[in-house]
């Protein structure tokens, strides 16, 4: 199983426990969330004054965000708001904490681990290492970084973006008197820690300073309020897409099917490919979907009859491979010209080969 839904959780009322793992002796921790299968976890850690450890690495991607105090890493003094992303196998510099500090510590793939080493593992993605003062060296941007966007009044600082999974780590703030009146859910898991301030959510009430949640995909949340504003550190494990609606009673299964219905309407060929079996990649021979007919429409609790919409039905009736779809893209703009090019039985001299005819199979026949 993955991490369970935890919301709301206020860690300030919980006590610290002593670390007994190599590389963390002299520190204390609170567990905010934990995957019982992989050991991946989110911790709040108190590094006591005098804490030291040599350079070393972990076999999990690791993220560290300093909440207060100072920490020296590889000779660099880092203060509150400093953020690190350390890819698995990348050696982090020697750590010293002269007077104590508190931080959020994330192990994304496996349980906490430390291996003394001054060298990176030979398979480590060293270029992925990030060390930045997020408070001073990253600009605020509007919430429109994520689309569809939240209501005006949310600002983001993007600290890390994974180009493969589209996972993100980011600071966000709600301005005073922020209000958003709808409900949302996502395809991704989402977590947040309130660094300062309180927000309110219809399903879960107040989340104050020190408040935390781990929210699996398709969980309803909202509407939202923040009387005096707040600032928080957020993370997702894949692309953050906002599905908005106004039904507080829908459950995660209904929300999942509604998300699939969006894909069915907006990217029907991709939906068919996902629903098909025995395929590998859309541009490989195993990825060509030759469906016998339209795919079954997933239920949408807000638009129950969407599949009967003429345009949706027309797109679903189209049956062709991705490669054919790529080549036929101009057909909507120039139907006759596109069809003429697709049958390969025409003459032209625009490709530098001189006048010639495309016969069956696309072979050139010079004239």
Structural class comes to: mainly beta
Overall mean pLDDT score? Answer: 85
CATH topology of the largest domain: Jelly Rolls
Question: What's the N-to-C terminus distance?
Answer: 66 Å
Low-confidence parts lasting 5 or more residues at pLDDT below 50?
A: 284-289, 329-344
CATH architecture of the largest domain, please?
Sandwich
Number of helices: 6
Overall morphology: globular
- What's the total number of strands? 29
Structure description:
The protein has 367 residues and is mostly beta strands. It has three domains: 6-133, Jelly Rolls (Sandwich); 141-245, Sandwich (Jelly Rolls); 252-327, no CATH class. Helix content is 13%, strand content 34%. The chain contains six helices and 29 strands. The chain has helices at 134-137, 252-266, 268-275, 310-317, 322-327, 335-342, and strands spanning 6-10, 17-18, 27-34, 41-47, 51-53, 56-57, 62-69, 71-73, 76-78, 82-86, 95-97, 101-107, 115-116, 130-133, 141-142, 154-161, 168-174, 178-180, 183-185, 190-197, 199-201, 205-207, 211-215, 224-226, 230-236, 243-245, 347-348, 356-358, 364-366. The strands form seven sheets. Strands 1-23-20-25-17-16-15 form a seven-stranded antiparallel beta sheet, with no helix packed on it. A seven-stranded antiparallel beta sheet has the order 2-3-4-12-7-10-14. Helix 2 (252-266) crosses helix 3 (268-275). It is globular.
């Amino acid at each position: 199983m993955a991490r369970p839904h935890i919301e709301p959780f206020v860690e300030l009322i919980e006590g610290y426990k002593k670390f007994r793992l190599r590389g963390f002796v002299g520190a204390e921790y609170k567990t905010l969330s934990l995957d019982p299968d992989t050991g991946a976890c989110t911790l709040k850690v108190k590094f006591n004054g005098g804490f030291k450890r040599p350079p070393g690495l972990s076999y999990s991607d690791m993220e560290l965000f300093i909440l207060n105090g100072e920490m020296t890493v590889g000779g660099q003094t880092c203060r509150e708001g400093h953020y690190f992303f350390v890819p698995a196998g990348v050696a982090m510099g020697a750590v010293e904490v002269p007077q104590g500090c508190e931080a959020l510590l994330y192990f994304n793939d496996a349980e906490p681990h430390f291996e003394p080493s001054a060298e990176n593992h030979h398979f480590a993605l060293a270029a992925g290492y990030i060390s930045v003062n997020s408070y001073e060296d990253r600009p605020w941007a509007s919430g429109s970084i994520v689309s569809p966007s939240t209501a005006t009044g949310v600002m983001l600082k993007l600290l890390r973006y994974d180009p493969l999974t589209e996972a993100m780590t980011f600071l966000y703030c709600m301005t005073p008197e922020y209000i958003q009146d709808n409900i949302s859910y996502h395809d991704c898991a989402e977590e947040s820690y309130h660094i300062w301030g309180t927000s309110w959510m219809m399903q879960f009430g107040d989340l104050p300073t020190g408040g935390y949640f781990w929210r699996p995909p398709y969980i309803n949340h909202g509407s939202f309020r923040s009387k005096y504003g707040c600032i928080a550190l957020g993370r997702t494990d894949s692309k953050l897409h906002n599905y908005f609606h106004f039904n507080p009673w829908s459950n995660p299964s209904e929300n999942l099917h509604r998300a699939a219905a969006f894909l069915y309407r907006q990217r029907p060929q991709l939906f068919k490919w996902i629903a098909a079996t025995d395929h590998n990649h859309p541009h490989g021979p195993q990825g060509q979907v030759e469906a016998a007919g339209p795919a079954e429409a997933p239920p949408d609790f807000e638009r129950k009859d969407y599949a009967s919409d003429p345009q949706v039905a027309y797109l679903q009736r189209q049956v062709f491979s991705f490669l054919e779809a790529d080549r036929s893209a101009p057909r909507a703009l120039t139907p006759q010209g596109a069809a003429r090019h697709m049958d390969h039985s025409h003459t032209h001299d625009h490709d530098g080969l001189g006048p010639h005819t495309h016969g069956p199979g696309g072979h050139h026949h010079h004239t």
